[in-house]
Amino acid sequence: xxxxxxxxxxxxxxxxxxxxxxxxxxxxxxxxxxxxxxxxxxxxxxxxxxxxxxxxxxxxxxxxxxxxxxxxxxxxxxxxxxxxxxxxxxxxxxxxxxxxxxxxxxxxxxxxxxxxxxxxxxxxxxxxxxxxxxxxxxxxxxxxxxxxxxxxxx
Length: 154
Description:
Number of strands: 2
Radius of gyration: 21 Å
């Protein structure tokens, strides 16, 4: 008895993708660089350096309802962390500290992945660590938002 070759699936290969890692490295590095360059005026405005021009508020929920979303304050949190102000970062969005750490970790991690790919080595496999870190961040983000909606000051 013969098997129909057309119905068999091809073997899945673990293809090293330097473009994927390069894009993530650029996005994460660029986000961190912007956090260093931007500044905060008062406690509500993000300002473009040297020009003093405030960026528009990005949160549509806050703009239309006056209620902040779970991600409100993340930009100001990142800027505060990049400038070394941990207390201000916490006050803007406590979950942002974890996200900042995750994004900052991406820079050396993606650089190492690119280095390994160029040397013909297999990519490092993070296993469940990445999913756990993102899960903890999601719980922290929603938790801090729920507490703020209840009027708890963090």
